[in-house]
Amino acid sequence: MRGLSLLFCLCASLANAAPERYVLDAARSDVGFTYSFEGTEKAGKMPVQSAVLLIDLDNVPASQVTVTLNAGAARAGFIFATEVMKGPKVLDTSRHPVIRFQSTSFQGDLRGATVTGNLTLRGVTRQVTLNAGLYRQRGTELGDRDNLTVLLTGTINRNEFGAVGFPDYVGPDIGLRVLARITRQAP
């Protein structure tokens, strides 16, 4: 009987487990994107303005993420492309200074997952799905869940968000690569 009550307590505590809050280390994180400019792949960066990360490592589908990017501070690799990208025909950062992603579901586990969510760019919201990987940070102990690296990758079509400017020079597909260093927030 004693073993049964111990099992019940263990199951009850697991059932009550909830996602834990992680904090983004923006200085050690990188939000990158790629695009085709006249047939040549170019790369750019965009800083994170804010992030709310609720991660459940034992039940990945219970996780939730909201990330806001500072589109006005984005860099497209060279000054001409940066100014055009921020202009009214592409990101229109004077009217839409941020890009926001809010997760709606996670699928998979720690070995490999996808995250689906609503991406708002130029005031247009579309559902996107990104591949997700979760790793221990270099130099941490095996089993360390306090310091993690998240890698998100995927592709979006800029035309679906109304960022249709300069189609003769820039292709429609934008590759995303987000490398985020996160630390579990102390209780």
Structure characterization notes:
An eight-stranded antiparallel beta barrel has the order 1-4-5-6-7-8-9-10. The chain has a single domain, classed as Lipocalin. The radius of gyration is 19 Å and the shape is elongated. The longest helix has 14 residues, at 2-15. It is built from two helices and ten strands. The relative contact order is 0.18. The chain has helices at residues 2-15, 79-86; strands spanning 20-24, 30-37, 40-45, 48-55, 64-70, 98-109, 112-121, 124-136, 147-157, 173-184. The model is unreliable at 1-15 (pLDDT under 50). With 187 residues, it is mainly beta. Helix content is 12%, strand content 49%.
Strand content: over 45%
How many domains? The number is 1
Shape: elongated
Please give the count of helices: 2
What fold name goes in the CATH topology slot?
Lipocalin
Order of H and E elements: HEEEEEHEEEEE
Mean pLDDT: 89
**How many beta-strand runs?**
10
What CATH architecture would you give?
A: Beta Barrel
Alpha-beta classification:
mainly beta
N-to-C span: 34 Å
Query: What Rg is obtained from the alpha carbons, in whole angstroms?
Result: 19 Å
Helix and strand arrangement:
Elements: H1 2-15, E1 20-24, E2 30-37, E3 40-45, E4 48-55, E5 64-70, H2 79-86, E6 98-109, E7 112-121, E8 124-136, E9 147-157, E10 173-184
Antiparallel strand pairs: 1-4, 1-10, 2-3, 2-10, 4-5, 5-6, 6-7, 7-8, 8-9, 9-10
Précis, in short:
The chain has one domain (19-184): Lipid/polyisoprenoid-binding, YceI-like (Lipocalin, Beta Barrel). The protein is mainly beta and 187 residues long.
